[in-house]
Amino acid sequence: RKISDRIECMREELNKKVVRATKWSSLTEIAAKLVSPISTMVLARLLAPDAFGILVTATMVISFAEIFTDAGFQKYLIQHKFDTRDDLYKSTTVAFWSNLIMSLVIWAVIIIFSGQIAELVGSEGHGDVIAVSCFCIPLAAFSSIQMALYKRDLDFKTLFLVRIIGVLIPLVVTIPLAYFTRSYWSLIIGMIALNLSNAIILTVKSKWKPKWFYSFKLLKEMFSFTVWSMIEAISIWLTSYIDIFIVGTMLNEHYLGIYRTSMTTVGQIMGLVTAATTPVLFSSLSKLQDNDAELKRMFFSFQKLVGILVIPLGVGIFLFQDLVTKILLGSQWYEAAHFIGLWGLTSAVTIVLSHYCSELYRAKGKPKLSVLVQVLHILCLVPAILWAVRFDFRFLCDVRALVRLTLIVINLFVLYHVVRISFASMLKNILPALIASAAMAGFALLTNADSYTMSWQIIMCIVCMIVYASILMLFRKERNIIFNLKSKL
Predict the structure, then answer these.
(1) For residues 170 and 484, what is the distance between their CA atoms, to the nearest angstrom?
(2) Closest C-alpha among 468, 461, 462, 465 to residue 436
(3) For 358, which of 137, 370, 371, 376 could close a Cys bridge (C-beta 3.0–4.6 Å)?
(4) Of 226, 211, 212, whose CA–CA distance to 77 is shortest?
(5) Which of 55, 38, 35 is nearest to 258 (CA)?
């Protein structure tokens, strides 16, 4: 009896921490997603798609380099069980110095070979952009380790301040520079300013401070986990950027800008939900890694909540793709509307049926499974993109959006063999959201909601939201989740 009471007490305490963490993470992302679209709307009207194409190539190089500088240390510090706080801080210090030294070495190599790297990624003549923008790599080394400690403790309240200041950077730095220079340099400088503010604030506010301490023994202990986490990160990077590399080398910067900005625009919208829940889910699942029953319960709870929010969002982006493009990017981006719609629809399905599977693998201490999934997906992705890029740009976008659905098939197979979560159980979990979204889509199609004036389309968007909410409220569990969440938040 005492043991069961203790377990129930621990569950309640974890649930409270998860709710608080989700609240602050959600508030952070809501604030970020209110500002980010405004920044994107202004910048898309000040700068041509070519400028965003150059930024994409710089971001691609930075994100690849940061795989090796972080080397999986952040995930290790969140997932690993330490005996004492002192052990945690010692490992943190080793991770910090390893991270920083590696980042400086990699930045130096990038500066030396910046011209060749720029040519390789399809941005010939912009080696100086690559060299300068990669200053973000050592800056990120200062903040990523401290960020891991906050996430480990589910302390997303502290990260709220950091994120809020970060999202204001485009308003006070990037947009003014873009207005006066009309140059891609405004995007690069804004990106550096963002990383600089993160590094300063997190270093100042963190309870842990770097010390002159290093242990190769601790590095060796971390390496067995981090090496696979790093390989996983490389596979995820390839999944995210291999098509960017192909498009950048085979098409011009104009189409590369449209291609990547379409993905980013949808990502900003979907990130309102995913960015708020993913770090909380990973931290929560890591605490339940030895209890499969509780781990499944937590996983399904997050999936159902995310499905309620994301599925209608993706369907809505698809139905009102022209409206979304006009509002967020402007009329000069009309070529992006079709891809934005498809990417939004497939994103919704991929998020609820595939996205969170990787978090479960890592929480169980099995990053190898995520590597396997990503590699299998890449084997489908690369041939498809190489084939589709030979045709017109619209066809390329169709193929890219559809091929990502292979991630769902692969993840569902692996997930069932890891924790016995079947496709049927996942589908049943999100079925009410699917039914309500289908009803909303049916209403929009029957009324030709996307064929009216812009102001009328906005009204029809609101009506579609009311239709979705009304149908969803017919399901008891979904109704209870929404009302309970509202009362707790």
Answers:
(1) 36
(2) 468
(3) 370
(4) 226
(5) 55
